[in-house]
Amino acid sequence: MKAITIDSLGEQSKFKLTEIDQPKPNDDEVLINIKAFSINPMDVAAKLGALNSPFPDNWSFPLVLGWDMSGIIVEVGSNITEYKVGDRVFGELRNDHAGNNGSYAEYCATDTSQLAKIPEKLSFAQAAALPIAGLTAYQAITESLDVQPEQHILIQGGAGGVGSIAVQVAKLRGAHVAATAGPAHIQMLQDLGVDQVINYHDVQPKDVLHDIDGVFDTVGDIEGGLATLRSDGKLITIAAQPTSEQLNGSQHVAFQFTHGTSKMLTELGGLIADGEVKQEVETLPFSAESVNNAQDRVGDRHVTGKLVITL
């Protein structure tokens, strides 16, 4: 099969188009003909060699990275009963997938723990943009922060792949939502229903927000988020490690380890299909050049929404 691979880890390593052996599903897995995959900050960290166990435990070179994907099931293991050949599916591969079994390829084999059927109204590109970013946002708002009606919530980094989903899910739960963004994304967030967009080029959140109920930090500014939070409020971060001082203060601070499920993927896909949550998706053709370009852009942290490679 065709795959986009790297031969080493590090900033200088470049992706290239390669022919490698197709992964073989075991009795508890399905084989998927991939139609689209998305590029996440986690992918960039993986390429740089910045991910710890269990991620690299089963890697080998040439290495196929990638976790988010959508496609069509072409083979099912003997123990699989909930899916059949021909099903359109999307999901996230195992953290410790084998070196030849990432999503930057024509095929992948995976178990079904983080797999769901694609709603009819969704394209492969839309579905591939959802798993990691969508599940991260969905878990943060519905579980980690457990956002309630009339609460005041700050999303730090509202225009990214995670933040743009989070602001909408928080609004659906009846919250008053503030979000930080650069000037190029102010209108976009206003169109998504954000109540207060803070241009971080001109003003700090702490200068305009006080006694916030909850903060979702996607940019790594824990201290800035805490400065807006009420004394017993909650901050959830996915972009920095809290210090012991922050963890032991009166405010609740935690790093979120996302644990997506098929049920959560189905719920999130339904929100997109019904038009209740909108996506910002940019598609690029399947090539090494596209992946190198997308990795660079995601690494610079100034992407609007999600970058998706289509096959």
Automatic annotation (TrEMBL):
SUPFAM superfamilies per record: GroES-like, NAD(P)-binding Rossmann-fold domains
Cited Gene3D superfamilies:
Medium-chain alcohol dehydrogenases, catalytic domain (3.90.180.10), NAD(P)-binding Rossmann-like Domain (3.40.50.720)
Family matches, as InterPro entries: ADH-like_C, ADH-like_N, Chloroplast_QOR, ER, GroES-like_sf, NAD(P)-bd_dom_sf
Q: Which GO terms describe its molecular function?
A: oxidoreductase activity
A Pfam match is ADH_zinc_N
- Where in the numbering of this chain does the Enoyl reductase (ER) domain appear? 10-309
Membrane-spanning intervals of the chain: none
Domain of life where this protein originates: Bacteria
The record's PANTHER family line, in alphabetical order, gives: ZINC-TYPE ALCOHOL DEHYDROGENASE-LIKE PROTEIN C16A3.02C
Name recorded for this polypeptide: Oxidoreductase
